[in-house]
Design brief:
two-stranded antiparallel ribbon, about 290 residues, alpha/beta, Rossmann fold
């Protein structure tokens, strides 16, 4: 790697007293592009895309709170409102608006809601399976009374309090877990994601960097109608991506595309939930064309 092709620079910013981390791939005079990872992931999962796009964009990839090198919530409580605030703070503090965003899963959910709250702040938006499971799953959850949801959440929080992060005896053991999670990953991809996704413990074992409390979803959130209202406020061109082999449903078929005014769906064959890993070259071509 030549001197002018060094990797990203690690930077920090603060949001709600949390010290949050992001990587900056340079080229600050180019149009800004934010890459938002999904749940239990980290910002370095975008390295292949960032390297390919850095010549034409100022690429910034943050670690969500509780993930990667970002601080964990002291309360162990992670809400969509908090994630959205963090994104709003990063864009505000770094004066990135109007910004292009490419986001995956949880990151896509955050970015879509942000774009509805601040329509003028987002120029173009790519969301990889960012609108969540199909409408039926939301309906089932919403049928539960608040007492049942609160009790379930309290039970989950208590269970998490008694858990210790899983420890892997070797890096190879953690790598095997990464490979088992996504059959499409090449050996090099899996190793890269694992190396940037673990910390080594004092006893020499390895554990994932994310806070295990991020698995516990709050008992209350925006209603389905409120989320759909935000989707309807998005004015930028939007690309909704999903993998044909994923658990996600096609938003063009389940009715959710109808909430958007300026969106289209890209269904990718031979890809699961991590389309940007499973079909990297195809996805890059689509993103380049879309952002252009």
């Amino acid at each position: 790697m030549t001197a002018d092709r060094l990797g990203p620079t690690s930077r920090t910013f603060f949001s709600q007293r949390l010290r949050l981390h992001y990587v900056d791939w340079g080229n600050p005079d180019a149009p800004p592009l934010l890459l938002l990872h999904g749940g239990r992931d980290h910002c370095r999962n975008w390295d292949w895309m960032a390297e390919a796009l850095r010549d034409d964009h100022h690429v910034i990839a943050p670690d969500l709170r509780g993930h990667g090198e970002s601080a964990w919530s002291a309360s162990g409580h992670y809400t969509m409102a908090g994630y959205i605030y963090d994104l709003a703070q990063l864009i505000h503090q770094q004066r990135l608006a109007p910004v292009d965003i490419v986001a995956h899963s949880l990151g896509g959910n955050i970015a879509l809601r942000y774009a509805g709250i601040y329509p003028d702040a987002v120029r173009r938006l790519v969301a990889i399976e960012g609108i969540g499971p199909g409408p039926r799953s939301h309906t089932d959850a919403e049928r539960k009374p608040i007492t049942e949801r609160m009790r379930g959440w309290i039970d989950e929080q208590r269970a998490s309090a008694g858990q210790q992060p899983r420890r892997y005896a070797t890096l190879e053991d953690a790598l095997a877990r990464m490979q088992a999670a996504n059959k499409h990953l090449s050996p090099d991809q899996a190793r890269h994601l694992t190396q940037h996704g673990v910390n080594q413990n004092e006893d020499g074992t390895y554990s994932w960097k994310f806070d295990h409390y991020v698995r516990v979803w709050p008992p209350y959130d925006m209603t389905r109608e409120e989320i759909a209202e935000l989707w309807g406020r998005i004015i930028c061109p939007t690309l909704l991506v999903y993998g044909r082999e994923s658990w996600a449903s096609n938003p063009a078929e389940d009715g959710r595309l109808g909430y958007f005014h300026n969106a289209r769906v890209l269904a990718v064959e031979g890809a699961g939930h991590w389309v940007h890993h499973d079909r990297l070259e195809l996805f890059l071509d689509e993103v380049r064309t879309f952002l252009a």
